[in-house]
């Protein structure tokens, strides 16, 4: 196991995720839909890519849509075409099956869809993929990372198509992953009796941050693998700052390896701070309200709903309705920035928590 600067591709590159790998491998081949959820940078993409390494798969990274206020079915089809094109070299027969789909054309190993999205039948694409997999004795796994970003789609609803595939296509299964957990559930509408996916079983894999002992061991093993000697004091201080977020622990490990010394942790924290502040401020700009900044300022050490309300009213110098405070906190929870622990709201990411009292989000 070594520190990685990008998602893992093999189970051997993961630390202490054997149980999750076994569960995901079983579920991908035996369940129609698997949900992989967890906060940012806990290793969801690594788990999915590593666990499905030897499977026939289609991988769609919906993070491409994160900075967009809305998307269209054309945006989704473009990403689907790229992913399908990567499958074509595997089988000449796949080309034969897909070439029958209305609105889809194949040139060499490149798939393109008709300019008019009305001419494209996504259920027919899924039918063709399922029929091909069945004819080859394969099982095809379609992975959509950060699936909640599809909630931005205007003018087209994919949920009935996912429900159709769930009910009818036995050789095609889905893995939906998301770090904005509330948004993911809101998009899939699993608790809504009117949702096409209501009442359908989905395997749930929740990836949690490392415990303190796991974090310490992860760093020790990573540095040992790199042949680097590092003091326990520095390792403990790193875990104090970075908690159990594997993405930040790996960033520190790589930073220290390239430039050993006590300044490596400060450098890694500085880089991480810039990343999370930009992510949060992009969210604030998309929401169009600076009240989210005030709430994050107030949550450095956690706060109850009443404390958040009082803080907002004090800063703005005017009353704020209960429903508005609840809505703001719910948005922060749904987007994975905040979670509720007992009666308090706390910031999820240790780096955002560290800088929360000085986040400004200037326009």
Automatic annotation (TrEMBL):
User: One Pfam family name from the record?
Assistant: WHD_MCM
Q: Name one GO molecular function term.
A: ATP binding
Record InterPro entries: ATPase_dom (IPR011579), P-loop_NTPase (IPR027417), WH-like_DNA-bd_sf (IPR036388), WH_DNA-bd_sf (IPR036390), WHD_MCM_arc (IPR048907)
Taxonomic classification = Archaea, Thermoproteota, Thermoprotei, Thermoproteales, Thermoproteaceae
Q: Where is the MCM C-terminal domain?
A: 289-346
Annotated protein name in UniProt: ATPase
Q: Where is the ATPase domain?
A: 15-249
Organism of derivation: Vulcanisaeta distributa (strain DSM 14429 / JCM 11212 / NBRC 100878 / IC-017)
């Amino acid at each position: 196991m070594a520190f990685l600067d990008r998602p893992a591709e093999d189970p051997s590159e993961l630390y202490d995720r054997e149980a999750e790998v076994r569960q995901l491998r079983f579920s991908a081949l035996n369940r129609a839909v698997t949900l992989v959820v967890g906060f940012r940078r806990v290793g969801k993409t690594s788990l999915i890519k590593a666990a499905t390494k030897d499977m026939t798969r289609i991988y769609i990274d919906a993070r491409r849509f994160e900075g967009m206020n809305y998307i269209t079915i054309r945006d989704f089809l473009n990403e689907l075409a790229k992913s399908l094109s990567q499958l074509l070299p595997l089988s000449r027969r796949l080309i034969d099956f897909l070439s029958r789909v209305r609105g889809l054309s194949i040139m060499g190993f490149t798939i393109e869809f008709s300019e008019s999205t009305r001419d494209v039948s996504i259920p027919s694409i899924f039918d063709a993929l399922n029929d091909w997999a069945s004819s080859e004795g394969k099982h095809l796994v379609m992975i959509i990372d950060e699936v909640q970003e599809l909630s931005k789609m205007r003018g087209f609803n994919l949920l009935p198509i996912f429900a159709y595939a769930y009910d009818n296509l036995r050789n095609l299964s889905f893995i939906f992953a998301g770090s904005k957990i509330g948004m993911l559930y809101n998009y899939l509408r699993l608790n809504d009796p009117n949702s096409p996916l209501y009442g359908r079983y989905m395997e749930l894999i929740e990836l949690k941050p490392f415990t303190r002992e796991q974090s310490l061991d992860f760093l020790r093993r990573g540095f040992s693998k790199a042949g680097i000697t590092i003091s326990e004091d520095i390792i403990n201080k790193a875990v104090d700052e970075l908690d159990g977020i594997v993405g930040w622990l790996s960033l520190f490990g790589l930073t220290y390896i390239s430039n050993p010394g006590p300044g490596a942790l400060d450098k890694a924290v500085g880089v991480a701070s810039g990343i999370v502040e930009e992510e949060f401020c992009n969210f604030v700009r998309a929401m169009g309200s600076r009240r989210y900044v005030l709430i994050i300022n107030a949550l450095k050490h956690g706060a109850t709903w009443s404390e958040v309300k009082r803080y907002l009213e004090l800063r703005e110098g005017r009353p704020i309705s209960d429903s508005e405070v609840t809505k703001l906190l719910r948005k922060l929870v749904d987007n994975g920035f905040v979670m509720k622990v007992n009666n308090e709201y706390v910031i999820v990411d240790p780096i955002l928590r560290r800088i929360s009292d000085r986040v400004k989000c200037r326009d």
